[in-house]
Amino acid sequence: MTDLAPHELRILVAVEEEGTFTSAATRLGTTQSAVSHAVRGCERKLGAVLFERGRHGARPTEAGARAVGYARRVLRLLATMGAEVRGAGADGPLTGTLRIVAFRSVAAHLLPPVLARLAERHPGLGTRVRIVREIGRGTAGEVADGRADLGLATLPAEGPPPVPGLVTARLYEEAYALAHPQGHPDPRRLPLVDWDENCGSYTRRWWREQDWIPPATVDVEDDAVAVSMVAQGLGMAIMPATALLGAPPGLAVTPLDPNPPTRLVGYVTTPELAPTPAVRALIRELRDLPLPEGLAPARTQPARPGATR
Prior knowledge:
By secondary structure, the protein is an alpha+beta fold. Helices cover 39% and strands 24% of the residues.
């Protein structure tokens, strides 16, 4: 197999993001025929069909989606290569932009002090944060597909990582608690307010064992909306600790004793980006973050590709 050249990688990414060869050509300042020829060349080199062509445009096949993910990751390394090489062996300032993905509660409550300290120590290093819901492949999928350098993700207590092939490490563990309107005499009898990401959490077994939890009468997309509805008296919710940080007036929180469900939160990155100075600096700040009440440091081991801790 002949290696793909950087311009071929850019074409694959452009076709996947634009959806048609014509739009990709316009974006890259070339012709549709040149894009089509390059894609066919990539398919010959990789030995797989990368895009389904039709009236709908160009849709990546399963092989194509993997190829585009690797293409983004290689292009990201090429983009950071100059700064990395120039700074080799030197303690110079970090520059560039770190791309971070996180689910909402972590982005709102834990990332700000981390990024403030990072900016203070490395003023030349910028950050771009996107909120990604922890449904399906979640933040880990964004990292694996080359759209982010590091993601903050929920991690399974046991079993394989959420997306294979990434470097993963636990940061903290948080307990779930019962959120309900203040002053209610029997909050467990209230209707249940739930949110989509909670349905995909690693607490399903605990939920199935609770005969007092009714089916949800209100189901929303965002945990902050669920908390707000509970504070307004619309029901109760079973929420992780980070989702309850900065809770609005009118909300009370009762522990789910004696054995509450918990979830693990950690970071995910790619093997090639894990040793870079910018990502290492971000990980240091994440590890040094003083945890708010309700969050406990997770037991950790040295990070390694494809493993969770």
